[in-house]
Specification:
The protein has about 325 residues and is mostly helical. It is built from 10 helices and 3 strands. The chain has a 3-stranded mixed beta sheet with strand order 2-1-3.
């Protein structure tokens, strides 16, 4: 992969050229990254220890939280180091691996959101046969297929991005190795590569968004036919967290990737920060603060930990 390249390293321009802004941005993004790790690890732990959350929806959510951790870790540590460094250089192979990992986890996220939408569709529209349709085996098959397809997509997109000849400038106008700024440095013709990448982005982003859209059209149709206002409110409430996560991820992704290369501008960095840095931090809050099941499991878990601590104190005092 990347056999025609002559560059051994790239220089990342970064988020901003202002030296005054780099330290405050480092502190801000470091806090965001810590919150991202703690929040998503907390979601995974909570689902694991709470029997009430051992359902397909939360099975997908644990994989989503794990993907958020990996997705953010691929970019954030390097970005933080560059904010405190004068020379923001990255080797060709490191740049290529960063893009490969970024594409891999990004595709998985979009597929998991589609699976979660389909899960809500079956739960609300076909509750009597929900257990039959969304069985444990089906869940594992769906997740495994998304990992496999994401790996194939990432490999092909990485080949198209780094397989050309890099014989000119080596400054990447971004804070990580993304497809658009890297392809601008390729000396050979990139039209075919751009078309292949655009096709895969369309299949993944548009394909999964169509599944989400159709699932929610069916959900809306079913909910509006419910007689009880309480049932309608409960149905909408179970979908609110997922819809918020979808809006955050897909809004910024559509803006960044599904526009002509000539239209890309500095706002792309802001959109990238939203879906790479901010969204993984917000997802645990979205699924905990707007979800009664998660909040209930969190209260039970806290109570269980408190009782365990109280029991240990009593035992230690009697000894």
């Amino acid at each position: 992969m990347g056999g025609n390249h002559t560059q051994t390293k790239f220089i990342l321009v970064g988020i901003t050229d202002s030296s005054c802004a780099q330290t405050p941005l480092f502190v801000l993004f470091l806090l965001i990254y810590i919150v991202t790790l703690v929040g998503n690890v907390g979601i995974i732990f909570l689902v694991r220890v709470s029997p009430s959350l051992h359902t397909p929806m939360y099975f997908f959510l644990t994989h989503f939280a794990f993907t958020d951790i990996c997705y953010s870790t691929v970019i954030s540590p390097r970005m933080l180091a560059d904010l405190l460094s004068e020379e923001k250089t990255i080797s060709f192979s490191a740049c290529m691996m960063q893009f490969l990992s970024f594409a891999f986890f990004g595709v998985i996220e979009s597929h998991l959101l589609a699976m979660m939408a389909y899960d809500r569709h079956v739960a609300i529209c076909h509750p009597l046969i929900y257990v039959t349709i969304i069985s444990s085996r089906v869940c594992w098959q769906l997740v495994a297929s998304s990992y496999l397809f994401a790996f194939l997509s990432a490999i092909i997109c990485t080949w198209c991005t780094f397989g050309g000849s890099f014989c000119g400038p080596n400054r990447i106008d971004h804070f990580f190795c993304d497809e658009v700024p890297v392809l601008k440095l390729v000396c050979s013709d990139t039209h075919t590569s751009e078309m292949v990448i655009f096709a895969f982005v369309t299949i993944n982003v548009v394909g999964t968004s169509v599944i989400i859209l159709l699932s929610y059209i069916s959900i809306l149709h079913t909910v509006l036919r419910m007689c009880s206002a309480q049932s309608r409110a409960r149905a909408f409430q179970t979908c609110a967290s997922h819809l918020t996560a979808v809006a955050l991820l897909y809004g910024s992704a559509f803006f960044t990737y599904l526009q002509p290369p000539s239209s890309h501008r500095s706002l792309d960095k802001l959109a990238s920060i939203i879906y790479i840095v901010v969204t993984p931090m917000l997802n645990p809050f979205i699924y905990s603060l707007r979800n009664k099941e998660v909040k209930g499991a969190l209260v039970k878990c806290r109570r269980r930990l408190f009782n365990c601590c109280q029991h240990k104190r009593i035992v230690s005092s009697t000894i």
